[in-house]
């Protein structure tokens, strides 16, 4: 009979620093029986169960752990709200309204009643911001602060925007600018400098992220999108994920770099391409759209107060390139990954 | 701007060792907007969202954390399976079939690929044991092994067995014997002795718990149950929870002590009443049943291979008593609680 410490630590080679999150998910999936007629296959942003009449129960779970997801400077209220945003963002990418949220908390033994209140208020604020409600949950003792949420919604099966529908010729679009969180994290983690005028914007992008729910719902209604994902692992990674799931390649011809990021990169002698493509903790949507439906998609997003920028197109050739001013380079499939990433 | 360590540890009084899990849940609930027409109120074993036509989407989330939920001697496979059982048990108590499960994992950095396989296999085994499937999830780095599950099912609103329906005069029943996990934990944690003949049974009750799903579903179908709860916090606590939710009291006149526990208590000079009433990590159902429907309930459970034992009755007087051989004593509202309990 094995004892816990031996079981859990029995091979202290720290192998999963090499394994990485995606490999671990692969290992676990390989051990699972697959539900017959599963409406959304493993590896998309949400899961679903068929509830009849063309409707799906859409489900999502994602966990915030303080040591990897809560940078210095983020309050407990903001951390709890962020846990909601992380989950809602995946619903946004699929075009599904979040209705109800359950929360499972792991709480370190030194939190005070006031801290717990702050967590409760942050969770509620996040949920109400997206018109959802927290309807249940539980608490547990843990070494880290762990906020594990499950989100529930209902969607028409044919309205879901999956990762897998992009076709060569489709336009690629994003709902906002990139690089602010990379820059903000460098300010918070490495004390890099930024002029007062842009410092707040960059830091706020980390502490107060927003899910593009309005945009996602509008685009789903417009039926113009062929594939969709959020950019929580960074723009490059998101584009590669759509490429893989849809069996296409991409030619990106516009870098959607935020203007504050251009200034920040110049001042700190950083590569703005790196900040834009290989960040993470960003919650813009990355979408592919049929060219003839572009106007319709743009209008739908504009009507809810959002924006849609074309940044390139899907290609039959299965590689992901960046082409700016006639210069072509490869966009690498790297981005934000737990276990492998530099710790925040 | 507050920094994380200061935020999380800013009042290192370890207040929540005094707060306790239930107080923390109360604090969080007090911060939440309540969903209008919420079909199941806070504090029951599952949550629900109305999906029309008298149907509810039933949702549950519960987290296993190694340091409080995984005793020495439990393998990773067993821990992962137990995480499923914990959640399914609450569905069993409500009479709802679990259909799909999502898993959010917090994994310490020293787990190997083999360890992850074992976790995947344990999750799958647990899900398939109750005819459910794992349909999605994610992994994260954490200091503890954290297995946070979300379970989804569908139920007719009028078939749910809530905590709140017990009426004075209803019989109280349980689906099995108690005390084996308390005894098993004393063997695993404190090295107490047990004869070979019963040792395996006691230890297995801890390492390989079973959810009473068949029984719960059969009882829901029989429409004989007025209130129901599982006994994961111990028999005494469960009875008190029904008492509180239903606004009744109880007179318990039979202690459902497992025969192995009687032997174990005698050998180790322990109080068998204490082992039976104030344990935890048990997954029997505790139910109240209309006297005239007792036979029907008993038959329904027997038909699925289960058992139902009467142990007392609900009373108008709002206290919980034990009366054995004419001697009456108070059953205290204590049991298994994270943060307050002696660590396993």
List the helices and strands and how they pair.
Two copies of one chain form a homodimer.
Chain A: H1 4-9, H2 15-30, E1 47-52, E2 55-65, H3 66-69, H4 76-94, E3 100-107, H5 113-129, E4 133-141, E5 146-156, E6 171-174, H6 180-190, H7 196-207, H8 213-222, E7 225-230, H9 235-246, E8 249-252, H10 259-268, H11 272-277, E9 285-289, H12 294-303, E10 309-315, E11 320-324, E12 327-330
Parallel strand pairs in A: 3-4, 8-11
Antiparallel strand pairs in A: 1-2, 2-5, 3-5, 6-9, 6-10, 7-9, 8-10, 11-12
What can you tell me about this protein's structure?
2 copies of one chain form a homodimer. The radius of gyration of chain A is 20 Å and the shape is globular. In chain A, 39% of the residues lie in helices and 23% in strands. The first copy, chain A, is built from 12 helices and 12 strands. In chain A, the strands form 2 sheets. In chain A, strands 7-9-6-10-8-11-12 form a 7-stranded mixed beta sheet, with helices on both faces. In chain A, strands 1-2-5-3-4 form a 5-stranded mixed beta sheet. Chain A is α+β, with helices and mostly antiparallel strands. Chain A has helices spanning 4-9, 15-30, 66-69, 76-94, 113-129, 180-190, 196-207, 213-222, 235-246, 259-268, 272-277, 294-303; strands at 47-52, 55-65, 100-107, 133-141, 146-156, 171-174, 225-230, 249-252, 285-289, 309-315, 320-324, 327-330. Chain A has 2 domains: 45-159, 2-Layer Sandwich (60s Ribosomal Protein L30, Chain: A), CATH 3.30.1330; 171-330, PurM-like C-terminal domain (Phosphoribosyl-aminoimidazole Synthetase, Chain A, domain 2, Alpha-Beta Complex). The two termini of chain A are 38 Å apart.
